[in-house]
Amino acid sequence: MQIYKVGGAVRDRLLGKPVTDIDWVVVGATTEEMLAKGFRPVGADFPVFLHPKSGEEYALARTERKSGRGYGGFTFHASPEVTLEEDLIRRDLTINAMAEDDQHHLTDPYQGQKDLEARLLRHVSPAFAEDPLRVLRVARFAARYADLGFTVAPETLELMRQLSESGELQALTAERSWKEISRALLEDQPQVFIEVLRECGALKVLMPEVDALFGVPQPQAHHPEIDTGVHTLSVLEQAALYKQPLTVRWACLLHDLGKGLTPEEEWPRHIAHEQKGLKLIKAVNERFKAPRDCQELALLVGQYHTHGHRALELKPSTLLELLQSFDIYRRPQRFEEFIAACEMDARGRKGLEQRSYPQADYLRGAAKAARSVAVQPLLEKGFKGPELGEAIKRERLKALKAYKEMASI
């Protein structure tokens, strides 16, 4: 029995990056031997075991054969005869197909170290094209290592293009796709993920609503970058720069989808794009079964982001409607995330990245003013039921009028 550290742990050590998760592969062992040593089985489709003390995953060396469509369409074979090289060749990228023993001796049959030095994301074998999930994975690695200068090898990009055109991407489950998308959006350069998907044709298959934004012009006075797709990438880049959470990043990606529906004769104006985009945002949300908080914020940002930009001009009644839409009294964090998404949208414009965004503090102050209205005095006056609701609304409107007057002084 021989045990090797494989994949990401080896790659990140060689890159000088922190190693978090460690995967192990066991060569020359049987299931019975693993159980005898106290390992606990967890793999349903192939033999994976948890170490009795560390809890880390140990997988028996295995080969795989394509047997159906999609990510799950594989038959696995594990036995003591499977070599380390045979196990490594089934992996996606050369930089993920290295192994090392407990003496740090490197096994690198597919020149992963050479590709690390060349900053290339290159597939290990033609079998790469058998798994459509790898299109998303490679784009995610491109986003993760963009700051180190990594790019996708041309021949790998061509395989990704073939996969995108094959119809295999439609076989991916919403859960698997979302796992890759959400991880990619949380990388330091998530815009690179979208760029790579677009370059290989996967974006128009997975998110045609986002792909449709490229080539759509906006008024240059507000958007020096002009192109709506380029603007979306810039907003995503700003969201990562400001360490925004996944909810905000997802909303940033989808906020302008309505502009893709504007007839060409109306360009570069996009009247009512906020309302038009809601059905598209809803469709993308449902396609990937995004978590509820991501879905809700994306819809709210899509509908109200221009309200955010015009916050200082809004009438107190419109401001109150905005605050009510976000349920700021029970869900203050959601409104804070909306403000963040609006600010990222404002900063995601060429040459205007450092521009101040006074709307943020103004909206926070408005929310504070509305929340300051006490309900108890109204109860003591005998208000109840619908009348109480109307009385609260009147008082909040009064508070917002006073706030607006103070802010304009």
Shape: elongated
**Biggest sheet features:** 7 strands, mixed
Tell me, what is the CATH class of the domain at 1-111?
Alpha Beta
Proportion of strand residues = 5-15%
Helical coverage, percent range: 40-55%
Look at the helices and sheets and give the structural class: alpha+beta
Assembly context of the chains:
single chain
CATH superfamily of the domain at 1-111: Beta Polymerase, domain 2
Number of strands: 11
Under the CATH scheme, which architecture of the domain at 1-111 would be assigned?
A: 2-Layer Sandwich
Low-confidence stretches: none
Q: Radius of gyration, rounded?
A: 26 Å
Give, in spatial order, the strands making up the sheet with the most strands: 3-4-5-2-1-8-9
Distance between the termini: 78 Å
Count the helices. How many?
20
Overall mean pLDDT stands at: 94
Question: What is the element layout, followed by pairings?
Answer:
Blueprint lengths: L1 E5 L1 H8 L7 E5 L3 H6 L3 E2 L6 E3 L6 E4 L1 E5 L7 E5 L5 H5 L10 E2 L5 E2 L4 H7 L1 E2 L11 H12 L6 E2 L1 H13 L7 H12 L4 H10 L3 H4 L1 H4 L16 H14 L4 H9 L18 H4 L1 H10 L4 H18 L6 H10 L6 H16 L11 H13 L4 H5 L4 H24 L1
Parallel strand pairs: 2-5, 10-11
Antiparallel strand pairs: 1-2, 1-8, 3-4, 4-5, 6-7, 8-9
Helix pairs in contact: 5-7, 5-8, 8-11, 11-12, 11-17, 12-15, 12-17, 14-15, 15-17, 16-20, 17-18, 18-20
